Amino acid sequence: MSSFSLGGDNLFLGIDIGDSSLKMVELKKKNRRIYLSNYAFSENVSEINFTKVEDVNYLARALNKIRLEAGITAKKVTASLPTFAVFSSIINIGNVDKKGLTEAVNAEAKKVIPLPLDEMTLDWKIIPDASGKISTKGNAQVFLTGSPKKLVRKYIDIFKAAKLELASLETETFSLVRSLVGDDKSTVMIVEIGANSTDLFIVKESIPVLNRSLAVCASTITRALAEKLGLTYAQAEQFKFDLSVTLAADTNEKLPQLLVKTLEPIVMEMEYMLDFFQSQNKGNVEKIILSGGGALLLNLTEYLSKRLNLRVIIGDPWNRVRYPEELRPVLSEVGPRLAVAIGLAMREID
To answer: How many CB atoms lie within 10 A of CB 275?
Structure first.
């Protein structure tokens, strides 16, 4: 667990509940600027999958343990909904006025959402046209999301049990867009390489217009190293870290072939999404942003850039956040892991 505290009021807390991790970022707004107040995270603390645990009180206690040990004082929370549990799609709406918009969206939602609408909580956002204007005159595109009511209720109950005020729930996708893309209107691909899944999004005008999720992830790399080298999972995790340090020390060293082979499904999916987007939209992705703990594997950006012939960078979720300069090294290291939580905390500020 790591933490840092600035203190004060006017605080905004983002909590990212991952499969085997809990991450929190507390931000403070002062004179229209955003400051880091506190952060904390606990990863791989147990074999328990937090997103599947149904014991609300257990999850509430886990949240409060990390929050109180870190000295986080904010009580108003924005929390993430896991990407795999949320349905999203772009739908087309005909010429309707504001009064008829909800009915039109529901009618289209029935066609694309595989579950009964009375079991889902729907949200949508009209996508701006080519001129940047939002209008329902003529045909309009709408970005639709649907979250199972059962899941939403579970999260409400967790934070109620933790005696925290749940201000809003948001899918991880939008949190990543907020923290990694911000006001940048260019078309980008975000690749979130998490512990138990890799999520890929193509973002255009701040809207995720194409997304996929893969089982190949950071733990896949660790398991491959463990099997190949005869190590335990914990030893392989340490070896992966040591390997990254070695690669960082020698910029001419290439990504080892074992890692190249393990990452190939992710790279192939990236190639497919880039080609599909270009064929459907007559446009190009301008850059790729890596996030998540797996993004920290050194030389991965260089390998992907050469393979895909695109600019590839590790996202900086602290870009709009002010913090003491002496914390830069540690915050740069933990930033990719905390990108979702940072974006969540920014929601109420923005």
So the answer is: 10
Find, among 169, 183, 176, 224, the residue nearest to 200 by Cα. 176
Q: Which amino acid is at 50?
A: F
Q: What is the pTM of this model?
A: 0.88
**Choices 3.20.20.80, 3.30.420.40, 3.20.20.10, 3.20.20.70: CATH for 210-313:** 3.30.420.40
Q: What is the pLDDT of residues 207-217, one digit of tens each?
A: 888 889 999 98
Measure the CA–CA gap between 71 and 4, rounded to whole angstroms: 8
Count CB neighbours of 212 within 10 A: 14
Pairing of strands 21-30, 76-81: unpaired
